Amino acid sequence: MSDGVNSRSSYRPPPPATTGGSAGGHSGRGPGPHPRVTSLPKKRQAVSIACDACRSRKIKCDGQQTCFTCRKNQIECTYKTLRASPSTQELQRKYAESENKVKNFEAFITLLRSHKEKEAMEICKRVRSGVDVETVLSLVQDGDLLVQMHLHPETQFQYTFPYIRHMPAFLC
């Protein structure tokens, strides 16, 4: 029986029974023996993440920087750094990048449709060789501008004004 007493000593004693009315001669008010009031320990708040030690031991963690269990056991309290959810700015940046890629691919398709078949095949060969679409677009568009700038406009007069000989020199 001593085993039962020793094992019960590790448990919290039950709260005393309250007496109703005047059964014990006391109404619960005024002087006299008061029942021992024990406050229950506060219920732990649920935390979203446990420290590594509590997680490995599969026990509850209070989520503090140094949790109660680690303080009690005098061990280092570490938390895995979890990647936080993406910020609004990061999502906006990714959305803008996606929009830019879509516009580039649309421009690329338009470019292929507008060029002759032989030129379109050359453009496709560049993409197949590993050059990204944005670079090919800029090369083709800038290349077209360079070709246009390379052409020299006709410098001779195509039309001569018939009465130029009769005009005063300061008007010519």
TrEMBL record:
Domain Zn(2)-C6 fungal-type, chain residue ranges per copy: 50-79
Q: Which CDD domains match?
A: GAL4
From what superkingdom does this record's organism come?
A: Eukaryota
The Swiss-Prot or TrEMBL record annotates one GO molecular function as: zinc ion binding
**Coiled-coil intervals, chain numbering:** none
- Glycoprotein as a keyword of this entry, yes or no, is no
- Location of the region described as Disordered in the Swiss-Prot/TrEMBL record: 1-42
For this UniProt record, give its keywords in alphabetical order, as a comma-separated list. Nucleus
Q: Which PROSITE patterns match?
A: ZN2_CY6_FUNGAL_1, ZN2_CY6_FUNGAL_2
Q: Output compositional bias ranges, type Gly residues.
A: 21-31
Spans through the membrane: none
Bias (Polar residues) occurs at 1-10
Alphabetized PANTHER family for the sequence = ZN(II)2CYS6 TRANSCRIPTION FACTOR (EUROFUNG), ZN(II)2CYS6 TRANSCRIPTION FACTOR (EUROFUNG)-RELATED
According to UniProt, the name of this protein is Zn(2)-C6 fungal-type domain-containing protein
Q: Which organism is it from?
A: Beauveria bassiana (White muscardine disease fungus)
From the broadest rank down, the organism's phylogenetic lineage runs:
Eukaryota, Fungi, Dikarya, Ascomycota, Pezizomycotina
